[in-house]
Design a protein that fits this description.
Length: about 725
Amino acid sequence: MIKIDVKTLEDLEFPAVLQQVSSFCITAPGKERVLAIKPFDDVQYIKTGLEQVKEFTASFGSDSPIPNHGFEPIFRELQLLDIENSTLDVSGFRKILTITDTTHRLQGFFKKFEEFYICLHANANTVEYRANISAEIQAIFDKYGEVRDDASQQLSQIRRRLNVVKGQVNSSFGKALTRYIGNDYLDEIRESVVENRRVLAVKAMYRRKVRGTVLGTSKTGSIVYMEPQETFEFTTELSNLVYEELEEIKRILKMLTEYVRPYTPLLAAHQDYLIHIDTVSAKAKYAVEIDGVLPLITKQRRLSLVDAYHPLLFLANKRRKEKTFPQSIALEQDGRIIVISGPNAGGKSITLKTVGLLQVMVQSGFLIPVQPQSEVCLFDRILTDIGDNQSIENHLSTYSYRLKMMNHFLRKCNKNTLFLIDEFGTGSDPELGGALAETFLEVFYEREAFGIITTHYANLKLLANELPHAINANMLFDSKTLEPLYKLHLGEAGSSFTFEVAQKNGIPYSLINRSKKKVEGGKIRFDKSIADLQKERSKLRKTSEYLETSAQKAQKKEKELEAVNIKVKDKLESYQELYDSNQKLIAIGKKFDQVSERYHNNKKKKVLQEELFKLVMIENSKRKKIAPKQKKQVQTKERITQQEVDQKVAEIRTRKKEEKAAAKKAPPPAPKVTLKVGDRVRMLDGKAIGTIDTIEKKKAIVNYGIFTTNVNLDALEKVS
């Protein structure tokens, strides 16, 4: 077990964590065990415990959840078993049966799902199970926890006789009841029970007329409770049989106790196992609440917490629906001491406590709220000096107490120690206390201890800057509003913003200026330089965030433009293909027109056939020969294209029909203007305008300036 003081655990608020975890236990012994948890330094023990909690956490929400492990403790029964000639009662055996059966059920479950619960299965195998204990108890007790009739031959006979006698009692009592009701000797209630015996409610005036034994009277004396003479003998025998039954049960329980007594250590082991399962279950439920994970346990001297949360603060803010700010911090051999500075209320103490509490939790077998890539090494000792340390009982001032703690640190601190000190060096004269604190820090550094301290002292910031394996750090503040950002920044000391915060809180500037004059100029310049650096870093951080956002927007815009560019290219390619196809068809059309013209002039069919055949052969020679597979694909594609064309043609026909139907319904067109020579006209489906030169029959020669054409008069319209 790790060497750690109770005061250290209280400083880190570990008892408060245990209190929260214990609320998830379902048994009283489980709660007691959780509250008694202390951190360990055995690597294998800690790893095994953490793996068990992780496996239990993985079972939540699965199709095969881990069976219930609830039980009633048997501490009293175990004590009785250690006493010679003692006897357990019925309830004691019920508890023992529950514990043995629950243990067996859990062992069977972990064996069945061994590949999922490796560590839990290995732990279950450490407990021996004896089926004969459960079998022997179940042979005596039924499923309701009562002693079975066949627990012994003697008991079986007694209970059979009991049933017979009870029947005789009821039968004889019923006959007496019927007779005396007929004689009107009984009160309205007729019967009652006195001393576990059925009695007649006889009217006081008729008590001498009823044969039997008086067992009592009513408060008013108007009713006398009498047991009929007919049932007296049977009830006496019944009482004897009940006594014999109890004696036989005692004998059976005595015999069963002697049978179980040798297995006392095994029963204690079963109970201890179930208590352990209860603690693991509680740790797993708590891990789910705080988003706990298993970090990497490393043998190297390295502590790296990524996005670490203080569990108590995390849960409190979760209930209040407020945001909790995580911290990332690393301690290693080349940077084993961190000096955190900066103004108050910035989160220095919380950061310090977070590191200490999470370290204690890991070494106590708890999953912690960090990122999975976090690394944790183990320490033999953890030393803390946090909070108000005045000791009224020992008549010690804050500084005296701190000196006493430093003396303790100096005696115990070594390379396997983690020390955490809040407000290092305070409580005395700043110059003298700071010098002494500087010396202490040098000693801790020389002993290669890991540690984190918070301070306002400039000399400690300078020392951390000079020591090769020490690091300055500060809690970030907004340079304009002076509001804390609750983010730790490693590598630079922080300004206390003493005068800036005072001004923000309404202290008159004249008083602040007077205060500045009272301080050495060098100190003000040093603090101002640090403050300016923090302001510059704040600006750089905001600029970096802005640039990062702009880069993301530009990247998104670039992707959108690329998508548009691809679409445009595809369209251009399709247009080019269409254009080439049209040009080809136009060229073929021109050749066909020439052949047609020549045939028109010479009327030679043979020449026409030769020229057409030659034209077809020339066009076929330009086509590439397609392989059968490609041909099939092309044909399929053509079929699909043809289907699309057919569909479009059908749509056009439908539209034309609709247009014709609409034209029929439309009013008759206006009377057509008679055309004559000299009118300016254009074709109905054209845009070019010409003049009519001559009109012959129903045709007109229209002059367009460059050329003339012969057009039907019906195809022309007058242009005003």
